[in-house]
Design a protein that fits this description.
mainly alpha
Amino acid sequence: METSNKTGRIIGTLLIGAAIGGTLGILFAPDKGSRTRRRILSKGEDLSDDLKDKFNDFLEETKKEMVSAKNKANDFMNDGISKVEKLKAS
């Protein structure tokens, strides 16, 4: 899970950096205001889509980790119950 967090932070940082760089590039480019606004809006929508995808990936990974932890806890509990029952029987 720690590696996933580091990867998520790196990707998030790259996305934010790309958005800032793209926005600054558009703002300083010699272009009409209406066209610049459209380009900023387009970049914003792209960033929004990327963040939604990243968030959905994060949720899926979290769900998988939770299911794995739940299964391990159930296995541990069942193993303990079996050992207690064996001790009672002897």
